[in-house]
Please model this.
Amino acid sequence: MRATGVGSLPGEDYAEAFRIVLGELTDLPHLPELPARGATANMTGRGLAVLDGLDADLQPAGWRLTGTGGSPGVDHRRARSLLAQDLDTVEELAQDTPLVSGGGTFKIQVAGPWTLAATVERPRGDKLLADHGARRELAQALAEGVRAHVRDVRRRLPGVETLIVQVDEPALSAVLNAQVPTASGFGKHRSIDLPEASQALEWVLGAIAEEGATPWVHSCAAGTPLGLVRTAGAKGLSVDLAQLSAADHDELATSLEAGDTVALGVVPALAPERTPTDKTVTEAVERWLDMVGLDAAYDIVLTPTCGLAGADWRWARGVLRILTETARHLA
Model:
């Protein structure tokens, strides 16, 4: 059993954030995301930074695609530059560490096609969800961009044996249940058919697998269709344990028995009134294993319930330590 982070962390000092990840999450470190640095560093900005062939710019209402002319806006260029700088930092700090020298496992994250479609506007306004062609183009551009991103990370960290790519889809449930507001705020975008939702995920997850990396899908939202995600090609499911339905528990058990990974969000992303300990978290995981009729020998990873960007560093470091200690107890 291992521990890792969902992705986001507090603060703006990238080098310090990665040092903490390397120090606390020795079995499964991840590429930190620091949204406090602004829109070019948040989940949507990061997702747009890896798109292949589509340009974007930042408007007062948020990110908007501008076309395919090879002329990205200044903020889109900044997002790409910031990602490259962060990878430079990771490459430098990871040298001579077990991550590279010992053939370790590393996780990177990217926003999924449906979360991007629900948060990015098309050139003439309103979300990409409103346009079938734009949705398709976005998913294909993301798939090709992720290919290049995986190759770049492998080039920078050649000693990493297993590379995991976590596709973040917190908006997937809202997209499928017609819960994404229109630009006016008075209506909702129509729900997406399941075959189309699955196909877009298949393109992205398939591209990851074809590059020799392991595709996960993460969502801390209730109602995420885990069966659809698995069918689309996810080899890891990352969820918030507190948000699961009875059917979700069965789906996770099936995934583990099939040899896939389940990442359980078991420690709150924000400090609660009663601080959990590694003992109480261990007991909670053991109760879950007992409920689904499995044991700790399966490939289970422990995570926070969601990203830690909203926490302070004291709580964030505490979460990572609790997760690591809990994983050791259960191992």
User: Anything to note?
Assistant: The radius of gyration is 19 Å.
